[in-house]
Amino acid sequence: MPSIRSESPRKKPTQARAQHTVESILRATAHILRTAGWDACNTNAVAKRAGVSIGSLYQYFPSKESLVTALAEEHAARGLGVLMEAVSAASGGKLSFEQTVRHYIRAMVALHAVDPKLHRVLMEQVPRLKGGLDVMRRVSTPAAALVRSWLETQRKHLRAVDLDVATFTLVTAVEAVSHLQMLERPAKLDQELMVEELSQLVLGYLKIPPPPGPPGRAS
Amino acid sequence: MPSIRSESPRKKPTQARAQHTVESILRATAHILRTAGWDACNTNAVAKRAGVSIGSLYQYFPSKESLVTALAEEHAARGLGVLMEAVSAASGGKLSFEQTVRHYIRAMVALHAVDPKLHRVLMEQVPRLKGGLDVMRRVSTPAAALVRSWLETQRKHLRAVDLDVATFTLVTAVEAVSHLQMLERPAKLDQELMVEELSQLVLGYLKIPPPPGPPGRAS
DNA sequence: TCATGATGTGAGCAAAAGCTCAGCTCGACA
DNA sequence: TGTCGAGCTGAGCTTTTGCTCACATCATGA
Predict the structure, then answer these.
(1) Closest CB to B176 among A97, A162, A176
(2) Which among A107, A118, B63, B125 could bridge A34 via Cys, Cβ 3.0 to 4.6 Å?
(3) Whether residue A84 is found in the same domain as residue A156
(4) Cα distance between residue A195 and residue A204, in whole Å
(5) What is the pLDDT of residues A21-63, one digit of tens each?
(6) A73 and A27 in one domain?
(7) What whole-number distance in Å separates Cα of residue A128 and Cα of residue B38?
(8) Is A7 within a domain?
(9) Which domain holds residue A121?
(10) What is the tens place of the pLDDT at every residue in B60-96?
């Protein structure tokens, strides 16, 4: 394993044939990561599954890491796209605060349902690859900004919170819970219930608490 | 990399000298994982850092995986111990519901502060190792049971929730948020604030909501 | 003191996997 | 029909690394 050997930028595919080759390679990588896991994902196996020679693979991806990173980038872009779509769909002003939260959460839960196994492998392995942290940041930063700026417009519904802190807490919690739910699929906990629970979690955290008094509570 | 070659149980150390060897090996493994990461953690490097020969390492750990798994087991046991301690410390009946939640969360946040880098590597890599999922389960199952059984005693403070679902949601969210906070250390978000935010998150999710009416809220 | 088993050593084997390169095919264009 | 370059091939080189084994050393009980 010669670690970092060549970091020269490889040629970009121009002809349709080459586009197809690159696409096959990425699809094969995703398939192997999803079904056989990180350890089984070596460049020879990817090339074989893609139906191209190992040499072709290295024509477009200078290293194994760059291959996985490229796949992660694609995966991340898709995720960010879903979030942006959800935001613009909810920005008509027709939905209440509560309804909007539920809408976002439903989008996130649905996103995690798409390809949870691949998502897991990428989340676990990409951060330690060269450039992997950048890939992660290129999604998480705008995603957080999107959430934060929405929260900003909803100040009147919120208790006194620091928006940065609240964004961090909410994004992390929603991501983690919906991710793990997809992987472990606990009995009783289907997607729709998950949306409900996460909405409770988020709303309970954000909403203005009632003045203490009447409602039955002890201590 | 001969994958699975020998799975024979290796001898358990009996003399003090051997105990020390085993301990050195585990400490070296932890050190390398923490400071140099998963890729740098090969058996030769571990042996070198531990100051023992590679042969000695294989006398006690039949494979690289068993070595990491053993470390994970130790790490996990420590974590479960902290939780159990927190539960017994809070079981005097002197603390209110809110105070107890805060007490648990403080313990969890403190736990994640101990060795976050190592924790991250183990959480990311152990699940895919042979027997790794069992190690994870041997902590997460009793931990969840502990939380669940406490919630059960607090029914009168809770809104109508399925305890299994609530346990899953809370444990996952608290773990993920405190873990990520330690790794990213966002400005503004110190440990004490984290405890506060997570307590808000958990209490907002669990507590009986107020009857709709007077308190200022829109929509 | 000696025997015996536990413990420690490290050169080196073998397999895995990243990656190269010399030469091939294919297709667009003149 | 010929040229030229983009694209494709796969045997095999090289490095890494998990792991073995023949031998040395240590500790303990008789």
Answers:
(1) A176
(2) A118
(3) yes
(4) 14
(5) 999 999 999 999 999 999 999 999 999 999 999 999 999 999 9
(6) no
(7) 8
(8) no
(9) 64-206
(10) 999 999 999 999 999 999 999 999 999 999 988 899 9
